[in-house]
Write a structure and sequence with these properties.
The chain is α+β, with helices and mostly antiparallel strands and 624 residues long. The chain contains 19 helices and 28 strands. The strands form 8 sheets. It has a 7-stranded mixed sheet with strand order 12-13-11-10-8-14-15, sandwiched between helices. The protein has a 6-stranded mixed sheet with strand order 4-3-2-1-5-6, with helices on both faces. The protein has a 4-stranded antiparallel sheet with strand order 21-28-27-24.
Length: 624
């Protein structure tokens, strides 16, 4: 996490372009810089980090708005402390989610002159975000206008080149289904909707559909591309140099170029098109197709606006749902990945407990050591996000990442919070543990205990089919609410199978009431927390898979579901106030630790990691 840097000169250049007729048709009174790329990705390639470039704030969520005299940045509770540390005096921090914080639309209505024009690159704003903002501005006699040439790119003199990394193929050993089987499913869903065309813009959906993975975005095994599926052919829009002989063989190519624009792929009628041909191709295809066009409203305004409203289906793509509900092969792969990941964390915490007494371990060296350990596991590909290695007050910065400038030593005097994950060919992991390597304070123990109570309450919940995640979330907060505590982030996010560590459309968060129904086979996180600014932070996170629950009754044949933990890493009992726990909670923890000892213990024996095994046995001793 970097410190403040001056942005005055950048803002001056940007404001000059907002008035320059060489770059805008008419003067802009405000310019919006979203976080996302052209695929509405949460995590970005270096060349797409425009908001970070203009503002100095490099968190994964936020939107910047620059007017003629002010610059404001909206971000959520995960990043309040980080934004305060990184934004210079040119910026106003808008703490999104607080009742006192105006929305972007409200703020613009207050700041714009009569007939104000607000510009944005339409590739970087989803249609679902464009619609309400445009409506609000129009009601105030202002206008939201698309700006084809991105103004940040013009002033970004040393902007990194777009990524162009090679692809890898995944066999059915990891995916459970061939890409041809997935295409068949997609086409059946299209028939049900009356759609003749499906436009796929999300990078993880393209990767999942074709059983391909890449590395264009750090920690996310995706590649820059689009796809179009009709009932007659499939088109992949990608930098053609990525498509080597291995990829062509995977896609069963049996013919070469048949014109100057694309290559046709075999009886499946798959075609490889240049990445930047997507707009022209959609426009041309719409004119020639009589059926409806399915393109999610989460896609960019630039692409959605190419399709007339009366023939457009804006629902989530069928791929989004199919990807979220893991098949049996994907679930077993996720189990394998979590066993390997648990081995690395046992080895790491065993190492840390010894080294901390020497006095030379920092947040940075600890994160580096963990990555070194992870790289020793079979099928490890990369981390799944930047490791959050945070000690003392840094643990209160929810998405903190250490640097040489900001890193603190890890000592026996402070809480240490570690949020880490790995990308394995088997699956994706994300786990948080909070420990104290000395003697925790009573406040820290109470906070930890209440966070664990919330974690258990959610993780052991039984609920009927058809329930959405936001309806369960209060279970994770009740123990904190009892004493007037809370936390400013969602409690659970979906997780991909060797894909993005944050995956929609399922989730468990008060922020969203539009999340999809929870279903058997979905994998999510369970991660309540508590953060005392300037002092400490606590978070406990497991990944869980939804499975059928066995219940005494079955009201109106609804069917009931529950969660099963995939993460099997000890929870430090030293941090607990045992007298606060109910017998049911004690039993849950003891059963969980018994699973850790049995499953991870066996793997540690197989890998001949005796010190880590000894640590695991100590840390999973029954409570009470």
């Amino acid at each position: 996490m970097s410190t403040k840097r001056s942005t005055c000169h950048l803002l001056k250049k940007l404001r000059g372009l907002m008035k320059n007729s060489n770059f805008v048709n008419e003067q802009l009174h405000a310019y919006i810089v979203p976080t996302t790329d052209a695929h509405q990705s949460e995590y970005l390639a270096a060349c797409d980090k425009r908001r970070a470039y203009i503002s100095g704030f490099d968190g994964s969520a936020g939107t910047a708005i620059i007017t003629e005299s002010q610059a404001a940045l909206w971000t959520d509770g995960r990043y309040f402390l980080q934004a305060e540390r990184q934004l210079d005096s040119s910026w106003i921090l808008m703490k999104d989610g607080l009742t006192t914080t105006p929305s972007m639309g409200e703020w613009l209505l207050e700041k714009l002159p009569t007939g104000g024009r607000v510009g944005v690159d339409p590739l970087l704003m989803s249609h679902e975000c464009w619609k309400p903002l445009s409506k609000k501005l129009t009601a105030g006699n202002h206008m939201l206008v698309p700006v084809a040439q991105n103004l940040i790119d013009i002033i970004w003199e040393d902007r990194p080149l777009p990524p162009n990394n090679p692809l890898i193929t995944l066999s059915t050993k990891y995916t459970g289904l061939t890409w041809q089987e997935k295409i068949l499913f997609v086409r059946n869903k299209m028939k049900e909707k009356g759609a003749g065309i499906l436009v796929v813009t999300a990078l993880d959906e393209v990767a999942w559909l074709f059983n391909l993975r890449g590395s264009d975005i750090e920690y996310n095994p995706v590649f820059v591309s689009y796809a179009i599926v009709t009932h007659e052919f499939i088109g992949i829009f990608i930098e053609e140099s990525k498509v080597d002989s291995t990829i062509l063989h995977h896609l069963e190519v049996n013919s070469t170029q048949n014109n100057s624009n694309h290559t046709t792929v075999g009886p499946q009628k798959v075609s490889i098109y240049p990445y930047h041909a997507i707009k022209d191709y959609i426009s041309d295809l719409v004119e020639k197709t009589s059926g409806k066009v399915w393109i999610s409203d989460k896609s960019s305004r630039a692409l959605v606006s190419l399709i007339p409203k009366h023939i457009r289906i804006g629902d989530l793509t069928p791929i989004a749902h199919m990807k979220a509900v893991k098949n049996s092969t994907e679930i077993e792969g996720m189990r394998r990945a979590h066993i390997k990941d648990a081995v690395t964390l046992c080895e790491f915490f065993c190492w840390l407990e010894k080294e901390v007494h020497v006095g030379n371990v920092t947040e940075v060296t600890a994160a580096n050591k963990l990555e070194e350990i992870k790289r020793g596991q079979d099928d490890f590909m990369s981390l799944s996000f930047t490791t959050i290695s945070s000690s003392g007050p840094n643990a209160a910065v929810i998405h903190y990442s250490p640097t040489e400038d900001t890193g603190r030593p890890i000592t026996t005097d402070e809480i240490y919070l570690l949020d880490s994950g790995g990308q394995y060919k088997d699956g994706t992991t994300d786990v948080t543990r909070t420990v104290h390597l000395g003697t925790p304070s009573k406040e820290e123990q109470e906070a930890f205990t209440r966070v664990l109570q919330g974690h258990i309450a959610l993780g052991s919940a039984i609920f009927p089919n058809g329930v959405k995640g936001h309806r369960l979330e209060c279970l994770a907060r009740m123990a904190l609410w009892e004493v007037g505590w809370d936390y400013m982030h969602g409690t659970g996010h979906g997780v991909g199978a060797f894909l993005n560590v944050h995956e929609g459309p399922c989730g468990i968060s008060y922020k969203s009431t539009t999340d999809t129904n929870l279903e058997e086979g979905m994998i999510l996180s369970d991660e309540p927390g508590y953060y005392e600014d300037g002092k400490f932070g606590v978070r406990i996170e497991n990944l869980v898979v939804i499975k059928k629950a066995v219940t005494k009754n079955n009201f109106r044949e609804k069917g009931f579901l529950t969660f099963e933990p995939l993460t099997l890493v000890p929870i430090q009992t030293k941090m607990l106030v045992p007298s606060m726990l109910t017998q049911k909670e004690v039993d849950w923890l003891n059963n969980y630790h018994s699973m850790c000892r049995e499953v991870i213990g066996d793997e540690l024996r197989k890998q001949n990691k005796q010190d880590a095994l000894d640590w695991l046995i100590r840390e999973t001793a029954p409570l009470g």
